[in-house]
Amino acid sequence: MYQKHFIEEIKTKSAELGFDEFGITNLENFEFNSSKIKEFINNNYHGEMHWMKDKLEIRSDPKNIWSKAKSAIVLGINYGPTNNPLKDLKKVKRGYISIYSRRKDYHKIIKSKLKVLARYIQKIESSQVKVFVDTAPLMEKPLASSAGLGWQGKHTNLVSRNYGSWLFLGIILTNIYFRNETKIKSNCGTCSKCIEVCPTQAIIKPYSLDARRCISYLTIEHKTHIQKDFRKKIGNRIFGCDDCLAVCPWNKFAKKYSDIKLSYIKKLDMPNLKTFLSFSENDFIVYFIGTPIRRLGYNRFMRNVLIAVANSKDLSLIDYVLKKLDSRNELIRAMAVWALFCLNKSRFFLEKKKRLDLEEFYYVRQEWLNGEYN
């Protein structure tokens, strides 16, 4: 009876702090999730995310990150958009930024709330706690599922009855053992919309994702050249992808976010590609300060912008693309070559005659040599 009252106290405080979802799970019977992450790594589905493989053993069980941990308090904050973001993909002259990134970096906002809640827990019950927000080797989605916040859908993301696919997660590990475990079974049924909508077929089967094909991975985590097969499918997405989240039927229950600190940054809502093409590295740093997009770095950001430009069919951007052919960075030059080919083939061949013999970098040369075979 005391523990039930204790849980209600924590839940009430979490709501006061702005958390929309709350759940608690102990850390027993985590073997299934451990086997899934190991299968993911063994199949090399993690791509260039080497940190996942390097810390596989720690990630496979929360107790490996902190041996004293006995339970996880899982919190969720809704960030559901007001409109269906799939409509934004038709605005090809503008850059699509994933819904979660059109605001200040959620890590800091949620972590500050978690710390307040952690201190409150320790005030009412002698205990040890540690807080985590998406940066430690911890499997948040399986923990959220075990805690009853929702279930992992066929797209492998968490689905909530109340908020659909739009939840930021935070975890508090504690050395207190909680008895309750309210894991929710999958309610995806026969629906396969998330699988069907994926432009690159990254969801290779229900509940299994090959990150190497995922547009979110390609535009955010992938550090090198993006292979040609994926570029057209990326469309105007310059940071992330929300297709599998946006198409989920459970989103009809999603409520608009309420936390003022998670409010949109208006300039990140479908910005003009022409603006970004003219950015210097300093412009990039200043424009995206305090947002998740900053982690890309200028060169990968411009790589993504040039792919979107190539798909835009906007001939007014050709002069901007030509300037990028002189970039010192081979990642940018290579995608400028491809963008030029897509926008103006005659100008592409003219520039090729002038530049190919002078180009030293392999990937840039390949773009000049293979352009006519696109």
Q: In percent terms, what proportion of residues is strand?
A: 5-15%
The whole-number mean of residue pLDDT values reads 92
SSE order, as H and E? HEHHHHEEHEHEEEHEEHHEHHHHHHHH
Q: Specify the structural class.
A: alpha+beta
List the uncertain runs: none
- Report the span from N to C terminus: 68 Å
Percent range of helical residues: 40-55%
Largest beta-sheet characterization: 4 strands, antiparallel
Would you write up a description of this structure?
This protein is an alpha+beta fold and 374 residues long. It has two domains: 1-271, no CATH class; 275-374, no CATH class. The protein is 42% helix and 11% strand. It has 18 helices and ten strands. The strands form four sheets. It has a four-stranded antiparallel beta sheet, with helices on both faces. Strands 3-10 form a two-stranded parallel ribbon. Strand 8 (203-205) and strand 9 form a beta hairpin. The radius of gyration is 23 Å and the shape is elongated. The N and C termini lie far apart (68 Å).
